[in-house]
Amino acid sequence: MTVRRVAVLSDTHGHLTALRAVLADADASGVTEVVVAGDIVNFGPSSAAVVDLLRECGARLVRGNHEVELVAPYGTPGMPEWLRSSVRYTVARFTMEQLGAERRAFLAALPDRLELDAATLVTHGSPRHVRDGVTESRTDEELRAFWNGHHALTAFVGHTHRPVVRVVPPAAEAAEGEAVRRFVNVGSAGFNLDGDPRVSYALATPGPSGNPGDWQVEIRRVAYDVEAGVREFDNGYRDACGEYAEVFSRQLRTGRHYFGPWVRASGGLPEDEVLPSLRRFLAENP
Predict the structure, then answer these.
(1) Is-above-0.85 flag for pTM?
(2) Residue spans per domain, the chain
(3) Are 200 and 187 in contact, with CB atoms under 8 Å apart?
(4) How many angstroms separate the CA atoms of 259 and 73, rounded?
(5) Rounded distance, CA 104 to CA 115, Å?
(6) For residues 181 and 168, what is the distance between their CA atoms, to the nearest angstrom?
(7) Among residues 53, 72, 75, which one has the least CA distance to residue 111?
(8) Mean pLDDT, the chain, as a whole number?
(9) What's the CA gap between 59 and 34, in Å, rounded?
């Protein structure tokens, strides 16, 4: 009998070289299913090819915040002005045009969650919200709130680009017999931000009890040809916005966060100051 072996990925973000390495590792590990917990596109240079590869291999996909907030409204009457014209979203527009209408419609129609069994959920941030982040620093109380009434015992998530497994005990005032729950943040199959440039995914096999929600989980880190990943930006992306190509190339090489700190530091700047501020940030943060 074939043992069920599930590769749970997240945050591929249009990085084809990294995704191919993860899928090769999963295949060598005997994986029978591939599931992706959102943020399939944007930031990276090869979003269209990433979507095509995941569809070809029969992966089950859910939406992340990039699919919800950028792909779904793009080209619709409800498309926000910032997405239509802001320099901050130059890369998003490059990505949306690269994807084309058919892929955008496919991504926009994906579910926001799916179940691996009756007690196992796959979603992007948490059962509560697509932008919730399951991290090492979250308190148990915060993580209990993330379930938002959902019955699952195990949830596979992404969003933070930092893999971690958090076991969440019941609250002190919980009824007797309340179950321990677990979040498995699989990190990113596109680029991690924990100081380790290797990408990651979760390899899950049914646990010894055979009960729903019981999984043996291994977080696998996968080395790949980072410089080949950097060269992907030469597909027109670097011409569209060289500063953004440099930001994300540095993240690939170092496993450190450049984009988020700059976004927070540059909030509120007028449009004509955005790229100069990014150039200064890059010069000050090699």
Answers:
(1) yes
(2) 6-222, 240-284
(3) yes
(4) 23
(5) 23
(6) 5
(7) 72
(8) 97
(9) 5
Q: How many residues are present in the chain?
A: 286
Distance of alpha carbon 259 from alpha carbon 209, whole angstroms: 43
- Kindly indicate the confidence band of residue 44, based on its pLDDT and cuts at 50, 70 and 90: very high
120 strand-pairing partners: 117, 154
The 3-class SS string of the chain reads: CCCCCEEEECCCCCCHHHHHHHHHHHHHCCCCEEEECCCCCCCCCCHHHHHHHHHHCCCEECCCHHHHHHHCCCCCCCCCHHHHHCHHHHHHHHHHHHHHHHHHHHHHCCCCEEEEECCEEEECCCCCCCCCCCCCCCCHHHHHHHCCCCCCCEEEECCCCCCEEEEECCCCCCCCCCCCEEEEECCCCCCCCCCCCCEEEEEEEECCCCCCCCEEEEEEEECCCHHHHHHHHHHCHHHHCHHHHHHHHHHHHHCCCCHHHHHHHCCCCCHHHHHHHHHHHHHHCC
102-143 residue pLDDT tens:
999 999 999 999 999 999 999 999 999 999 999 999 999 999
CA distance 17 to 11: 14
CA distance 187 to 199: 8
One of 3.40.50.1860, 2.60.40.10, 3.60.21.10, 3.40.630.30 is the CATH number of 6-222, namely 3.60.21.10
How far apart, in whole angstroms, are the C-alpha atoms of residue 69 and residue 57?
Answer: 26
How far apart (Å, rounded) are the C-alpha atoms in residues 229 and 45? Answer: 9
The CA dihedral of 139, 135, 204, 128, to the nearest 10 degrees, is: 70
- Is residue 153 a contact partner of residue 213, using CB atoms and an 8 Å limit? yes
